[in-house]
Amino acid sequence: MKVSHQLPRTPTLRHLTGISSCASSNDLNDPLVSAKRVCDHFFGGISDMTLWRWLQDEKLGFPRPLVINGRRYWRENEIVAWQAARPRKVVTAPARQSTTDKETAR
């Protein structure tokens, strides 16, 4: 009787574009982040639909995920770099009138 032991297969890494990932040694040490963590932790609770829209909008340049067993993962350094490269919109509150300004306006 012949018994063969098979090792479990390693998940295939690929970008959504279908091009296989050729990871450098630096990328191999970078943690992978799930889609849920990208939505909740990095972007304050955006929806999965918003994440999908960002992926569809080529002008945004949002990093492409790796797909492992049908699940999307991003390299943490790519997410952080994308956030850092985004322009910040500074929102300022309208200036409040002081009580002396109100009295002189009367």
Give the biggest beta sheet.
4 strands, antiparallel
Strand order of the largest sheet: 1-3-4-2
SS-based structural class?
alpha+beta
The total count of helices amounts to 5
- Using the CA coordinates, give the radius of gyration: 23 Å
Give the overall silhouette: elongated
Helical amount among residues, as a percent range?
25-40%
**What fraction strand?**
5-15%
Looking at how many chains there are and whether they match, the oligomeric state comes to single chain
Integer average pLDDT: 77
Termini separation comes to 103 Å
Element order, helices and strands? EHEHHEEHH
Please report the total strand number as a whole number: 4
Low-confidence runs: 7-25
Supply the key terms.
single chain; four-stranded antiparallel sheet; 106 residues; alpha+beta
Can you characterise this structure?
The protein is α+β, with helices and mostly antiparallel strands and 106 residues long. It has a domain at 14-86. Helix content is 37%, strand content 12%. The chain has a 4-stranded antiparallel sheet with strand order 1-3-4-2. The protein is elongated.
Topology:
Blueprint: E1 14-15, H1 25-29, E2 32-34, H2 35-42, H3 48-56, E3 66-68, E4 71-75, H4 76-85, H5 99-105
Antiparallel strand pairs: 1-3, 2-4, 3-4
